[in-house]
Structure formats: C-alpha cells, structure tokens
Amino acid sequence: MSTNGRVRRDQPNVASSFSELTHNAIELAELQAQLFSLDVKQTSQKAGISVALAIGSVCVLLGTIPVVLIAIAQVFMEQLGWSPAASYGVAAFIGIVVSAGIGAAAYARFSTGIATMKRSREELNRNIAWLKSNLRNRTQAGAVAQD
C-alpha cells in the first residue's frame, strides 16, 4: 500500500513474500528431483542383481531342471522299485521346492532394493509439510497485518 508516494513498511509485501515462497518451492522441487534420481540409480543397481537372479532362476528351471528331475525319477524307479507315476510325481515336487527357494531368494533381494526409495518418499513428505506450514504461516501473518 502506498501513502503519498511512499511504501508503508509495516505491512508485508505480498509480491515479495510470494516470490520468495515460489523460489523456495522451486528449489525444493529441484532437490527432490535430484534425490529421486539418486534413489532410482541405487534401486536399479540393487534391483539389477535381483532381476539377474530371477532370470537365472527361470533359465535353470527351464533348461536343466527337467533333465535332472527325469534322472531322479529314473533313480526312484530303478533303486526303490517305485512306479513311474510315483517317481515322476516326487521328482516334480522336488523341482517345485527348488524353484520356490530360488524365487524366494530373488524376491528377498528385490524387496531390499526397493527399500531405498523410502528416503525419497520421506523427504517429499517433509517438503510438502514445510510448504503447507509456510503457506499457512504467511496466510496468518497477512491476516494479522490487515487487522
């Protein structure tokens, strides 16, 4: 507000306050993007091992496990005198257990890799809370100054 060409200093300058808040919000957004980028890099590095383990698990399962399971079934038939159906059934169960174990290991590694994204989420929540608080304080200060 101006009086006789002079700006009154007792009232806050809304344009200046908004400009400062916008500048701070943009800086926070830039920092948040940088943190997110770093977290994505770390997550992809950790998840890369998990993906490789999962692919390896599938390759082993599809490539060598059937041959091994057939051999196990043949051993059951020859050494234990089991019927072909029982031998192949037990061999298939063994294959399922082995595959589940490898898959569980891959899942555990993948889960720990994703946990690094928690840092970005927490920082984003803190930044949003700060922005809300800052807006609330400026709104209240403006209302008090007008009274």
What do these coordinates show?
The protein is mostly helical. The protein has one domain. The chain is 86% helix and 3% strand. A hairpin with a 2-residue loop joins strand 1 and strand 2. The longest helix is centred in the first third of the chain and has 50 residues. The model has no long low-confidence stretch (mean pLDDT 80).
Note the main attributes of this structure.
mainly alpha, 2 strands, rod-shaped, 147 residues, two-stranded antiparallel ribbon, 4 helices, single chain
Give the helices and strands, then pairings.
Elements: E1 2-3, E2 6-7, H1 14-63, H2 65-80, H3 84-114, H4 118-146
Antiparallel strand pairs: 1-2
Following the backbone from N to C, one meets helices and strands in this order, namely EEHHHH
Helix content: over 70%
Low-confidence stretches: none
Query: What's the number of helices?
Result: 4
> How large is the radius of gyration?
32 Å
The largest pleated sheet is described as: 2 strands, antiparallel
Structural class: mainly alpha
- Round the mean pLDDT to the nearest integer and report it: 80
How far apart the termini lie comes to 14 Å
Strand order of the largest sheet: 1-2
Which geometry do the CA atoms define? rod-shaped
Strand content: under 5%
> How many structural domains does the protein architecture include?
1
The total strand number stands at: 2
Task: Tell me briefly what this model is.
By secondary structure, the protein is mainly alpha-helical. It has helices at 14-63, 65-80, 84-114, 118-146; strands at 2-3, 6-7.
